[in-house]
Amino acid sequence: MGAGQDVGRSCILVSIAGKNVMLDCGMHMGFNDDRRFPDFSYITQNGRLTDFLDCVIISHFHLDHCGALPYFSEMVGYDGPIYMTHPTQAICPILLEDYRKIAVDKKGEANFFTSQMIKDCMKKVVAVHLHQTVQVDDELEIKAYYAGHVLGAAMFQIKVGSESVVYTGDYNMTPDRHLGAAWVDKCRPSLLISESTYATTIRDSKRCRERDFLKKVHETVERGGKVLIPVFALGRAQELCILLETFWERMNLKVPIYFSTGLTEKANHYYKLFITWTNQKIRKTFVQRNMFEFKHIKAFDRAFADNPGPMVVFATPGMLHAGQSLQIFRKWAGNEKNMVIMPGYCVQGTVGHKILSGQRKLEMEGRQVLEVKMQVEYMSFSAHADAKGIMQLVGQAEPDSVLLVHGEAKKMEFLRQKIEQEFRVSCYMPANGETVTLPTSPSIPVGISLGLLKREMAQGLLPEAKKLRLLHGTLIMKDSSFRLVSSEQALKELGLAEHQLRFTCRVHLQDTRKEQEMALRVYSHLKSTLQGHCVQHLPDGSVTVESILIQAAAHSEDPGTKVLLVSWTYQDEELGSFLTALLKKGLPQTPS
Amino acid sequence: MKLYCLSGHPTLPCNILKFKSTTIMLDCGLDMTSTLNFLPLPLVQSPRLCNLPGWSLKDGNAFLDKELKECSGHVFVDSVPEFCLPETELIDLSTVDVILISNYHCMMALPYITEHTGFTGTVYATEPTVQIGRLLMEELVNFIERVPKAQSASLWKNKDIQRLLPSPLKDAVEVSTWRRCYTMQEVNSALSKIQLVGYSQKIELFGAVQVTPLSSGYALGSSNWIIQSHYEKVSYVSGSSLLTTHPQPMDQTSLKNSDVLVLTGLTQIPTANPDGMVGEFCSNLALTVRNGGNVLVPCYPSGVIYDLLECLYQYIDSAGLSSIPFYFISPVANSSLEFSQIFAEWLCHNKQSKVYLPEPPFPHAELIQTNKLKHYPSIHGDFSNDFRQPCVVFTGHPSLRFGDVVHFMELWGKSSLNTVIFTEPDFSYLEALAPYQPLAMKCIYCPIDTRLNFIQVSKLLKEVQPLHVVCPEQYTQPPPAQSHRMDLMIDCQPPPMSYRRAEVLALPFKRRYEKIEIMPELADSLVPMEIKPGISLATVSAVLHTKDNKHVLQPPPRPAQPTSGKKRKRVSDDVPDCQVLKPLLSGSIPVEQFVQTLEKHGFSDIKVEDTAKGHIVLLQEAETLIQIEEDSTHIICDNDEMLRVRLRDLVLKFLQKF
């Protein structure tokens, strides 16, 4: 429904073992029409969404993953549970409200969701802990893993019986200055749905990129230029702030750094309170020094943009498509001393995307043409996994198949081939509106009686049991309970008696010796022939091979003939009939 | 299934559960009441303590006077305080696979176990438990290490000498196993063996057992544990609370359908109502301060103190105490206050929603900001400059044997204006005060123990309906001091099984089933047959594969192609494989129909004779005889194998296979 061979509007419907789960509910920043929200009529044309969907899962607070949520739940209508992590639940409504304000107040859109709808929508949210197994109903369970992309970002495992899907949302496999790396255990899902924003990029080491970034910022302010860094209020912004803050402190710089939105302080506060979601180092030292209390970074005022002299400004939003970052950009674009650093991915259609693709003359609203003379730099700081990271995650989870979303088709194709080659699993990359069907063959769990299992396992340990053993038992199916028990127990439980089927054959042998001696000869003959079987000579003169009984008797009429009575049960039929045939051939001559 | 009980202390448990093939230690509590037998460790030299008289036997023999001192009729050991460890001899502790920790008070013996018994397993605990547990251990180590004591008494522990001592020293148990405090190095090493878990996380142990922590409502990150396989479930309830304080509420529903419920960590003061105690605490505090006295609150650096500060936050302005300084003195005071603010996910709903605003969940942030509450690592340093009286001091240790509290007891004990208010329930306040007697200061006992009381327990048990309850023996009889209060014990049906230190209990349930997976190909080949309405049977012959304690049934391999053309060399190659099991048979054979069938298949000259138990069918021509009885059939047939097989197949037509 979204993010198919595309970045933006993440929304995926998964049907697994009769359960329907919607993953993310995002908006598309490149569109202003109907295409900005997913088309929920894909889910069901007739009937309520609540009846059709078992739950909705939101991976993180970015609007391309949750921006359509109030529209979906309040305007289209969904009353079931919506799962997300605590930080996502805390921050998501703020971003939604921001988004609403821009859409309604600035662009004057009608028929948009209201503040009240955001509140009502958030009431349907159930917060989950990392690694908590949430039982959505008796069969469907979900579990969150750390994803590292932004504060509170999570990957989700959706599991029904032995079938499971892991959805990564957006994730980052290398720890950065404020977040840790994504991690998933070897959960062997039937399907792994992975983002692939950087499907073809292998990013150079983090340190190099940071050094590069600091060098560029430093050079620009040294020559008196202004640096604009368009960011989203939460996420990358904090990482870059930590980076600049420590650099400023080390170099003892006095050039002012500003952060443009009022959200900042609040945003930093969220980071302080949810410090358990940040990386190890920050968590360890937070008592002594909270990394989110910045000394050098101050709040920005609109008037500052016209101040002379160098400065560094973080401004929202990150793709230069609206708001303050765009305003500042317009003011500074004409001066070649200035610099704009784009630290993240830009969606097609945004100003950010245009200048990154080399466009230097931009048509603005009101047919004005803006000439961009300032330097434009791109620094991949956005916390997505690169190709190496994606491969690493596939290796960690060991899925049966992979499905790529949240990326560009061409790049996905490359990664798809790489995954299929390296892991020998099928890999899909459906476009929006496409359905991928995966056959699964789940095994059936039953209860086996411990007696039967232990008996089998004990015999499996015996040295002579090297050849394949067969376990034999009876499966009792009563209502929905399936139990595998020994045949004896099954008979007993059902109140049935065993019917014994026995066979007896008489073998006539020409022999004048006494019966006892005869039996002894039979015994030594069988003992030497049947190695690996239990052959016994009993005190009463009879011989047994496993449960087969052999008795020697005199012939009633002919003293020169002896009769061997071979008797066995149906369960030992093969051995019994083999012995009969064997004995009919006669006994070997005793060596004299 | 067995339970090894290593601790006799009902609220500081340490048990080992053997379940399936795993050995699981449940909690690792350290009994610190042993320290009450020792003299306090003063921060600054105390002439009073130094000059206590040595103790001598009744006959005047004073050979112990270096080790034992007398104070107001009580005898104390003058030595580094020692702790009573869980039993280490009952079971080889190196065989323990995992340790499950339920809350930060119940992990204090961890370094002794993980560092000195050959333990190689994993410890599981929630993040707040580990972080706050670390603070408690850090504080303890700090308290003891910063006042090095040259003397280490051991003579008194000699069994023959111990007998001669006055109580309670005479009756102290297992004194030979008492140990000194661990070092920070041991603490760090022990904590590095912990793996963090979240509530309702399912953790697989060797594929055999699944363990899950559940919120227990008692403290930040405190948990009860479910230990289960597919067919058996043991609940371990330790330190739970149904009161609404700061932690996430207790998860009761997940405890349902347990075969065994191990119940520990109930309230130690069943007769006191925590709410009432908090009220008394506030009013006594206000009264003392108004009269110009100081208030001393011996406490742990985390837990109830958060709730007390929250009460005071609401209370001080209305009580006109806004100018009174509140001091919180502990080497970990700052860390504790900071940590309390970052565990939003582990807090009750009210506090969680504050974080969403975003505001700090606990109001002590504001008390600190407005300088009403100040915290210091110890009485040395900044504190001595800021110290103003009258004031309120929160400090440890609640045993009054070490920590900064010792200093304040010495300092304020002589004035009746001052008050010490006991809120922690772990130590008897009279015993705690004994080495400070005679005292002029007021002593108020307001124990706040939010753990389950017996009324709540009986409600809980009715609700979750375990088949069996196991608990420390203390819970199966009224407390010794209130032997008439029959309501102060666990009342359930069947009556609980009780344990005491060093006992091994065989838990009363038998495992009958185990989960096994039938592969889809095998499942497809099964032919179910309805035996009774609603009950179907299918015989299964399959290959069992077991790996990592998971069992899978796979279809039997296709019979190997007979190697034709080659001559067999040995007879034994030809011996049939008796491992191929044939099904059991059931049913009976109606003689008349059987005879008809025989005739249909070309047998003639059939004669039927009645016997006592059934019939004999004679096939005279073939010299064959078939005995048919209710539950057995016997085919006696010479020579002709073909005939035997034909007859067998005819008989089988009348029988069902299992």
TrEMBL record, chain A:
Its cofactor is Zn(2+). Its main location: cytoplasm. GO terms for molecular function: hydrolase activity; metal ion binding; RNA endonuclease activity. Keywords: Cytoplasm, Hydrolase, Metal-binding, Nucleus, Zinc. Residues 237-355 form the Beta-Casp domain. One of its GO terms (cellular component) is integrator complex. Residues 8-202 form the Metallo-beta-lactamase domain. It is found in: Cytoplasm; Nucleus. The keyword Cell cycle does not apply. Pfam families: Beta-Casp (PF10996), IntS11_C (PF21386), Lactamase_B_6 (PF16661), RMMBL (PF07521). It comes from the Eukaryota. GO terms for biological process: RNA polymerase II transcription initiation surveillance; snRNA processing. The keyword Lipid metabolism does not apply. Component of the Integrator complex, composed of core subunits INTS1, INTS2, INTS3, INTS4, INTS5, INTS6, INTS7, INTS8, INTS9/RC74, INTS10, INTS11/CPSF3L, INTS12, INTS13, INTS14 and INTS15. The core complex associates with protein phosphatase 2A subunits PPP2CA and PPP2R1A, to form the Integrator-PP2A (INTAC) complex. INTS11 is part of the RNA endonuclease subcomplex, composed of INTS4, INTS9, INTS11 and inositol hexakisphosphate (InsP6). Interacts with WDR73; interaction is required for the assembly of the RNA endonuclease subcomplex in the cytoplasm. Belongs to the metallo-beta-lactamase superfamily. RNA-metabolizing metallo-beta-lactamase-like family. INTS11 subfamily. This is Integrator complex subunit 11.
From TrEMBL, chain B:
InterPro entries: Beta_Casp, Integrator_9su, IntS9-like_C, Metallo-B-lactamas, RibonucZ/Hydroxyglut_hydro. GO terms for biological process: negative regulation of transmembrane receptor protein serine/threonine kinase signaling pathway; regulation of cellular response to growth factor stimulus; RNA polymerase II transcription initiation surveillance; snRNA 3'-end processing. It comes from the Eukaryota. Residues 548-574 are annotated as: Disordered. Keywords: Cytoplasm, Nucleus. Residues 305-433 form the Beta-Casp domain. It is found in: Cytoplasm; Nucleus. Gene3D superfamilies: 3.40.50.10890, Ribonuclease Z/Hydroxyacylglutathione hydrolase-like (3.60.15.10). Coiled coil: none annotated. One of its GO terms (cellular component) is integrator complex. Component of the Integrator complex, composed of core subunits INTS1, INTS2, INTS3, INTS4, INTS5, INTS6, INTS7, INTS8, INTS9/RC74, INTS10, INTS11/CPSF3L, INTS12, INTS13, INTS14 and INTS15. The core complex associates with protein phosphatase 2A subunits PPP2CA and PPP2R1A, to form the Integrator-PP2A (INTAC) complex. INTS9 is part of the RNA endonuclease subcomplex, composed of INTS4, INTS9, INTS11 and inositol hexakisphosphate (InsP6). Interacts with WDR73; interaction is required for the assembly of the RNA endonuclease subcomplex in the cytoplasm. Component of the integrator complex, a multiprotein complex that terminates RNA polymerase II (Pol II) transcription in the promoter-proximal region of genes. Belongs to the metallo-beta-lactamase superfamily. RNA-metabolizing metallo-beta-lactamase-like family. INTS9 subfamily. This is Integrator complex subunit 9. It comes from Octodon degus. The gene is Ints9.
